[in-house]
Q: What sequence folds into this?
């Protein structure tokens, strides 16, 4: 933080990062998770925007394509966070929460209306949606603690 006060007093929060310092192992884990999330969302978002929700009511197609835009936007945010991982703190946790909530939504859907076919594909989506955010958050906690101790 700049001297002379905190945010709200005309000051800004700064994260000073020495770009010559090698990235830590925990930051690399976070970065890999973020790149994975970005890749999935940057391909899935446009695909779902294009495909829509066929064989359904206009309302459901509208919601589906809207959420595809949210998915695409989340991918852009994850990509930016991955590229700037050394400077990120809270954003990593928010992205992890976003993915975990998405996976939770999928889990709720499966518990209410059943597991879509082929089940292996849908479980292949669900398992990373529930595990990658936890791995990423744990690695971020380690990275933040190490940077605070340095």
A:
């Amino acid at each position: 933080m700049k001297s002379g006060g905190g945010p709200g007093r005309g000051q800004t929060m700064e994260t000073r990062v020495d770009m010559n310092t090698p990235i830590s192992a925990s930051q690399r884990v976070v970065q890999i998770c973020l790149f994975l999330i970005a890749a999935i969302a940057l391909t899935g978002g446009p695909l779902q925007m294009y495909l829509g929700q066929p064989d359904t009511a206009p309302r459901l197609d509208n919601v589906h394509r809207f959420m595809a835009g949210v998915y695409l936007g989340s991918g852009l945010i994850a990509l930016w966070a991955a590229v700037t991982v050394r400077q990120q703190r809270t954003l990593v946790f928010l992205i992890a929460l976003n993915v975990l909530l998405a996976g939770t939504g999928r889990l709720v859907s499966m518990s209410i209306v059943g597991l879509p076919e082929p089940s292996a594909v849908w479980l292949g989506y669900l398992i990373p949606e529930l595990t990658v955010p936890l791995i990423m958050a744990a690695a971020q906690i380690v990275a933040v603690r190490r940077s605070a101790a340095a």
Observations:
- The helical segments are 25-51, 58-83, 90-113, 119-149.
- The mean pLDDT is 89.
